[in-house]
Structure formats: C-alpha cells, structure tokens
Design brief:
This protein is an all-alpha fold. It has nine helices and no strands. About 70% of the residues lie in helices and about 0% in strands.
C-alpha cells in the first residue's frame, strides 16, 4: 500500500471497516476530522453545531460503511454526508430559532484557526484583518444555500468543480453558475474591503 497516497489509505481503512475492523475508523478520523470540522463550521457559522455534526458525520460513516463504493473517492463520500447533515441542521435551525445569551461574537472561528492573521502583523493590521475576515464570513453565511455550498466547497475546501458537483448532486455547469453568481454577490457586498 502507498502510504504517501491518502486516497489509498482511505480505501484501505474503509475496506478494514467494512470487514469488521472498527479501529480503522480512528485512522479515518485522524486524517479527516479537522477538515470536516472546518467545513461544517463554514457551512453553519456555529462552532457547537459544527462540532456536533463532525462527530455525527463519522457515526454516519460507520453506520453506512457497507454502502461505500471503493471506486468512489472517500473524501467526496465523507463530505457529502457532512454537507447533508449541515443542510438538515440549517433547515432545523430556521424552524427552531435559538437565541444564546452566551454567544461570543465571532470568537468561535478564532478557535478554528484564522488563516488571515499573522504573527508579524501589527495590532492595527491584525484588527483590520480580523474585521475583514468577519465580514467575509458574514457575507458567505448570508448567501443563498446553493451558492454558499459552492463557495465553501470550491474556494475554502479547494475542491474541483466536478467533485463539488458530485457532492451537491448537480452538474459541474450548475456549480460553475452558482460560483459565478456567488462571487458577484460577494464582490458587491465586500467592495469596501477589497
């Protein structure tokens, strides 16, 4: 087995998992848990929900292990599960609004690692970058769901359009169209920052 090829490792671990070696799930979680958590946070904008659904994603992987097809890319299958859970949670939240008196305005994402901040930045530069980062996150969260998913998958998760289309059960052309519309909306909303 090629240890330098993460996809080969994923297939091997899924084969072990299907074969009854439950500990293989730990290896899959070691490789993908952080990425799934960041993806879900970006989809939901809520660290607690993202953490809950990241765990639930791997529970679903375990339960659905028999339906995994080795010819599929594991990460596509995994993120499809996570995206479906995020969609369901957003729908549930829209029907059951919850106001938290403990809400920390935007601090949660800092725990997930803000890529825009740098140790070399002055305090004022860091403040501006933080504000810009919060504005981008808020603008992405305000996008319609189909556009938000496309932006998160293709821009933040850096997935190819074809893979995002598979995850979203649509065509690559539809994803390209969503990306185009989303970028235009974001460009308009974030004009003052960029």
């Amino acid at each position: 087995m090629d240890t330098a090829n993460p996809e080969a490792l994923d297939r091997a671990d899924m084969a072990k998992l299907v074969g009854g070696h439950d500990a293989a799930l730990n290896d899959l979680m070691d490789r993908h848990a952080t990425t799934v958590l960041h993806f879900l946070y970006r989809m939901l904008g809520n660290e607690e929900d993202a953490d809950d659904l990241a765990q639930e994603t791997f529970v679903r992987v375990y339960r659905a292990r028999g339906s995994y097809r080795p010819e599929e890319k594991f990460s596509t299958w995994l993120f499809t599960i996570a995206a479906n859970l995020a969609r369901n949670r957003r729908r549930w939240r829209s029907r059951h609004p919850n106001v938290s008196f403990d809400a920390r305005n935007g601090d949660a994402d800092q725990n997930l690692g803000d890529e825009l901040l740098s140790a070399d930045a002055s305090p004022s530069e860091e403040a501006v970058r933080n504000e810009r980062s919060q504005a981008v996150r808020a603008a992405v969260q305000a996008l319609p769901e189909d556009m938000r998913e496309a932006i998160i998958l293709c821009e933040w998760q850096d997935l190819p359009v074809a893979e995002a289309a598979t995850m979203l059960s649509t065509t690559p052309k539809a994803v390209e169209s969503r990306l185009y519309r989303a970028r235009n909306l974001l460009r308009e909303q974030l004009r003052e920052w960029f």
